[in-house]
Amino acid sequence: MEDFGGDIQTHPGVNLTKLSDECPAADPLAPYQARIREWATEYLVAPHPDLGREGPVCPFSAGAISKETFWVGCVNRADLTADDIEEIAADMIPVFHSLSPADGPGAVLKSILILFPRVTDYSIIDEAQRRLKEKSIPTGLMIGQFYPGCEEPGIRNAEFRPLQSPLPLLAIRHMVSSDFPFLAPKKQWVEEYLKKFAPSVPPAVRSAIAAQFKER
């Protein structure tokens, strides 16, 4: 699965490179690497006046970047469908689990960004993410969508648009305890959250707690 002198080769034509490393010139990521690195290191890990809380836009990313567990791959095709994007991201999940560290405290900080720079119909990014989220949450993963002009509102400030990025992409990472606000809109997601972070709570009690949250 190694290719390009140590980068990780996954789905055909997709190679994963650490954010801090330089990818080879032949890699589809090469024309976009500087832009996505700038966005990750100057936007995701920085505070924002419209965020509605203190700290960086994405606290998770700061740890992943500092521990060098932040990986990026690129699918440079213009003919992708929502099915294609879903399949590509799904194929990345076992690779995600196999990336070092596979266990221990550092494992939770792993992240993968999959760029789709030639996709212009961002609705297919949303559709693929919606399908993947339903499947990934029960496995303890979070899959998020980012793209130019993404209108998904912030949790603490509905006027803020935190998921805007210079290129369309999907992000894969582990679920963490601070993800609860992203899962509260759905009873099933709340149950999965409680199962992971409150395993000693009896299942019937978890279900009763989850039922208090209205579907949105």
Description:
There is one protein chain. The chain has 216 residues and is of the alpha+beta class. The chain contains seven helices and seven strands. Strands 1-2-3-4-5-7-6 form a seven-stranded mixed sheet. α6 (187-197) packs across α7. The radius of gyration is 17 Å and the shape is globular. The protein starts with a strand and ends in a 6-residue tail after the last helix.
Quick overview:
With 216 residues, this protein is an alpha+beta fold. It has seven helices and seven strands; from the N terminus they run βββααβαβαββααα. The chain has two domains: 2-175, no CATH class; 178-216, no CATH class.
- Taking the alpha carbons of the first and last residues, their distance comes to 41 Å
Following the backbone from N to C, one meets helices and strands in this order, namely: EEEHHEHEHEEHHH
Q: How much helix, percentage-wise, in residues?
A: 25-40%
The biggest beta sheet reads: 7 strands, mixed
Overall pLDDT confidence: 90
How many helices? The count is 7
Helix/strand/pairing category: alpha+beta
Strand order of the largest sheet: 1-2-3-4-5-7-6
Rg, nearest Å: 17 Å
Number of domains: 2
The tally of strands reads: 7
Q: Estimate what percentage of residues fall within beta strands.
A: 5-15%
Shape assignment:
globular
Low-pLDDT regions: 1-6
